[in-house]
Amino acid sequence: LVLVLDYGSQYTHLITRRIRQLSVLSLCISGTSPLSSISDLRPRAVVLSGGPHSVHTDAAPSFPDGFLRYAEENGVPVLGICYGMQLLVQKLGGVVAVGEKQEYGKMEIAVAADAGGSGLYGPDAAGGHQTVWMSHGDEVVRLPEGFNVVARSVQGSVAAIADPSRKFYGLQYHPEVTHSTQGMETLQHFLFDVCGVTADWKMQDVLEEEIRVINGMVGSDEHVICALSGGVDSTVAATLIHKAIGDRLHCVFVDNGLLRYKERERVMSTFERDLHLPVTCIDASEQFLSKLKGVKDPEMKRKIIGREFIAIFDDFAHELEQKLGKRPTFLVQGTLYPDVIESCPPPGSGRTHSHTIKSHHNVGGLPKDMKLKLIEPLKLLFKDEVRTLGSILNVPDSFLKRHPFPGPGLAVRVLGDVTEGNALEILRQVDEIFIQSIRDAGLYDSIWQAFAVFLPVQSVGVQGDQRTHSHVVVLRAITSEDGMTADWYYFDQKFLVDVVRKICNNVRGVNRVCQDITSKPPATVEWE
Ligand code: XMP
């Protein structure tokens, strides 16, 4: 296990993921965790992440007292990245100053000719130049005793340091970012040659271990319930649990009237035909839409939908209890690792902000009075790892590669009252044309998420020589790593011209189509 101590960098999760991509298990905990939380995990190496702080501020987060002694005495190599390196230097008696020249973005570094002996770079890298990703204001100006400079930026600042005898290392740049062209080689060299870890973390083993854990947790006469949303996480979680406990798993899929075009039919047929998962489908569209009638406030809409889900879920559990003669004991949640990492929040950055900006909810959120125990079989995995696990479990690609779809469904894509006119129906048709065009153009897998939005405004148009006063819809397509930040996707002009023509020709009630080209931030992905 390689432990990453988080100091609030936007790249911290990426470090953990890069290490896992090298088949080494990596976990991330807050950089201010107590020493026992670190030593209990018995890490083979510790990486100190970057972060937005300066070591000079009072609020600068730090590893616990005694950590470096623990690392040295137990032969645990420590690699500080950016802020992590500055912290290491300062704590060991070196000097970090506010840099004269701040370095941001791509930069060239020169690796010392004798760096091969330092342990941080392999012999191939020694004496060469590398392009790296820098993002720092402060810089190291005096090294602690025992350290050497093993690379400098072309501007002359310290880019990499090593104290091979204590196995303490530092990189001022971010090897985890793809712009650092040899970053992966550096991490690989550090892990395998310096730390001596073995590449033995495989998804097949994760699967077997999970099945063992689930079987140990769920007694042979106990039952488990799971709300399937049709998304990747809940589908993979349910398939995994089903493999472990068979038909003692009871899945429910709720049609809340806010699904996409033919979604209920498509999802149900895949569950039954491809996954052989028994699923109860509940049509609750009337129930949801009647509660949403006249509600315009986005937060209120989300809260109502969350509450209705819980009520339906509660009824489902109750019905099962009648049928089975006993209460289901467990509830499956498709929680992922990024949701459980307890991070050092960067001051004012709003990094783990989405929960405060919008009240997200997962289908099957926690009905407290149901007293169900939780099974979260994916809680140590990142999204891409869930996809790998899903493919081992034979979950079809059509599921694994689906774009994310929010729990509140089309309610956050019809601005204002979702029940007004035929907004939902118009949106379904526009969305279907847009997504199908993206698929036909072979772009679906290059786009992280794409969808249409219905605006509660009308504009004047002319169709077939007639004046029209019809609706405006918006197309949004983004690229992203994890939905926390996003860029808009750049379609070529012909694609857009064709899509707009198809929409206006086929969807009654739409005479104007816009494209949303705002990134996140400042916008969010969804419009509500
Ligand atoms: P935002 O709009 O917050 O969206 O930038 C980021 C990602 O999260 C999805 N999203 C949700 N997913 N329940 C979910 O399961 C929700 O309430 C929810 N709201 C937004 C959104 O589609 C995007 O992928």
CATH architecture of the largest domain: 3-Layer(aba) Sandwich
Specify Rg, calculated over alpha carbons. 26 Å
What is bound: which ligands? xanthosine-5'-monophosphate
Major sheet attributes: 9 strands, mixed
Distance between the termini: 40 Å
Q: How many individual helices?
A: 16
What is the arithmetic mean of pLDDT? Answer: 92
Shape type = globular
Helices and strands: which structural class? alpha/beta
Q: What is the strand tally?
A: 18
Order of the strands making up the biggest sheet: 2-1-3-4-9-8-7-5-6
Low-confidence stretches: 350-356
What's the CATH H-level homologous superfamily of the largest domain? HUPs
Percent of sequence in beta strands: 15-25%
CATH fold-level topology of the largest domain: Rossmann fold
Any idea how many domains? Answer: 3
CATH class of the largest domain reads Alpha Beta
Helicity, in percent?
Answer: 25-40%
